[in-house]
Design a protein that fits this description.
Length: 117
């Protein structure tokens, strides 16, 4: 290994499964915080960030919807494809409305399902 990892050193590793020691660096404070990159937090589980578009009164709200982060989405499949339930989409629209000062939803028409990656 010395030819591949020049300057490396040997370290003792745990000898059984219950001997836990961390060998990874701690993440610096602020990693993953949306405010660190100029976005505002929404305080919502599905919608993580909001940013106001420069020179306009428009806003972009974003979030991450994956089976890894929201395991309950796997319970909602249509013909074997995991999709976001309509009720969750209504919740997202209502939250987006709250952020921009519009607290009412009259109608929501879905053209296609939101497939979960």
């Amino acid at each position: 290994w010395s030819a591949v990892l020049a300057g490396g050193r040997r370290v003792e590793l745990p000898t059984y499964a219950f001997q836990h020691e961390r060998y990874w660096l701690d993440a610096p404070a602020g990693v993953g915080a949306v405010t660190a990159v100029g976005r505002g937090a929404t305080g919502h589980a599905l919608m993580g960030a909001v940013v106001e578009l420069a020179g306009s009164d428009r806003m972009v709200l974003s979030g991450r919807v994956t089976l890894a982060s929201l395991g309950w989405l796997a319970d909602h499949a249509v013909y074997g494809t995991d999709v976001v339930p309509g009720a969750a989409l209504v919740e997202l629209v209502l939250r987006a409305g709250d952020v921009v000062g519009c607290g009412r939803l009259e109608e929501l028409t879905l053209q296609a399902p939101l497939v979960v990656p």
